[in-house]
Amino acid sequence: DLRKQARQLENELDLKLVSFSKLCTSYSSTRDGRRDRYSSDTTPLLNGSSQDRMFETMAVEIEQLLGKLMGINDKMAEYTNSAGVPSLNAALMHTLQRHRDILQDYTHEFHKTKANFLAIRERENLLGSVRKDIESYKSGSGVNNRRTELFLKEHEHLRNSDRLIEETISIAMATKENMTSQRGMLKSIQSKMNTLANRFPAVNSLIQRINLRKRRDSLILGGVIGVCTILLLLYAFH
């Protein structure tokens, strides 16, 4: 009984998928013909057309059939696991695997066809929007076009400035991380040198000179980093 139900659902799915594929193909050809016929695009290409509604309806029906077939396969799997005749387990498992493969093929075909349909519809929406923008741009006055160009240029300048600021912040953060790492290394070296100084008092004067030079180098490095950061910010905002 379960195999009979599964075969019936598989036959229904096969017919539905064929009709679904034909619908997607006819949708693409219809849109291409309409685009060639109405080159001015005074009306939107895609709206609540009968093909769109039919697509949604058929997609829901196919998803319901796939869910029912999956439930039948699960019931067959439960029956196989609870079968009382061990000699039939191999044949039952082969049959169950065959129905699972069919379900997987139908599911893959459905998702592939649906994805193709959505891609075509999204492309048509995008093309329609671009055509509308082109028409509105052409129909606008010269002053409006000039203003639009100025706005676009200003927007591009703002994007460039934003990108430079982000790069400057990234450089500053990387410099901070390097300085933190170097500070940790210097602290470790300093603690070791202090330990040596406590053990060998004669090296104390040498350590003091090293500390003075280290402070001087730190001040110089900090000044250079500050000047570079200021220059980068001035360049970015300029």
Q: How would you spell out the order of helices and strands?
A: HHHHH
Task: Label the CATH architecture of the domain at 1-31 and 46-141.
Answer: Up-down Bundle
What does the radius of gyration come to? Answer: 36 Å
The residue ranges in which pLDDT falls below 50 over 5 or more consecutive positions are 36-48
Largest β-sheet summary: none
Written description of the protein model:
With 238 residues, the protein is mostly helical. It has helices spanning 2-37, 50-81, 89-139, 142-199, 204-237. The protein has a domain at 1-31 and 46-141: Up-down Bundle (Methane Monooxygenase Hydroxylase, Chain G, domain 1). It is built from five helices and no strands. Helix 1 packs antiparallel against helix 2, helix 1 (2-37) packs parallel to helix 3 (89-139) and helix 2 packs antiparallel against helix 3 (89-139). It comes from Alaudala cheleensis (Asian short-toed lark).
Fold topology:
Layout: H1 2-37, H2 50-81, H3 89-139, H4 142-199, H5 204-237
Helix pairs in contact: 1-2, 1-3, 2-3, 4-5
Characteristic terms for this protein:
Methane Monooxygenase Hydroxylase, Chain G, domain 1; 89% helix; elongated
Q: What's this model, at a glance?
A:
Its main location: Golgi. With 238 residues, this protein is mainly α.
